[in-house]
Amino acid sequence: MTSMAVLKWCQEAGVDWHYIAPRKPMQNAFVESFNGSFRDECLNETLFSSLDEARRHITAWKEDYNQNPLHSSFGNITPSEFAMKLALEKRAA
């Protein structure tokens, strides 16, 4: 049921939906890398006692992940610096 809701939203929002080709996991490498980091560094480390606590903890983790560590996949800069650099490159193009 969730996938049908996502597909409906994509149609309504005009977002193209692309499936990962069979036997081509590298098409999803960045997402898989993030999911692994999120699971290992946040979800596996904390037992949440409420939804509000989970939201606070995940928000704090997300801010730390995007602002502090350097990521080799982004050329050893933070994700926020990478996003800013990408936006500037798009404007210049």
Would you kindly provide a written description of the structure presented here, covering whatever features stand out?
With about 90 residues, the protein is mainly α. It has helices spanning about 1-15, 30-40, 50-65, 80-90. The protein starts with a helix and ends with a helix. About 0% of the residues are buried. The mean pLDDT is about 85.
DSSP strand count: 0
The arrangement of helices and strands along the chain is HHHH
Main structural class: mainly alpha
The percentage helix is 55-70%
Largest sheet: none
Proportion of beta-strand residues: under 5%
Termini Cα gap? 40 Å
Shape verdict: extended
Radius of gyration: 17 Å
Mean pLDDT: 85
Q: Count of helical segments?
A: 4
Residue stretches low in confidence (pLDDT < 50, at least 5 long) are none
List keywords for this structure.
93 residues, mainly alpha, 0% strand, extended
Write the layout of secondary structure elements.
Blueprint: H1 2-13, H2 29-41, H3 51-67, H4 79-92
In brief:
60% of the residues lie in helices and 0% in strands. It has helices spanning 2-13, 29-41, 51-67, 79-92.
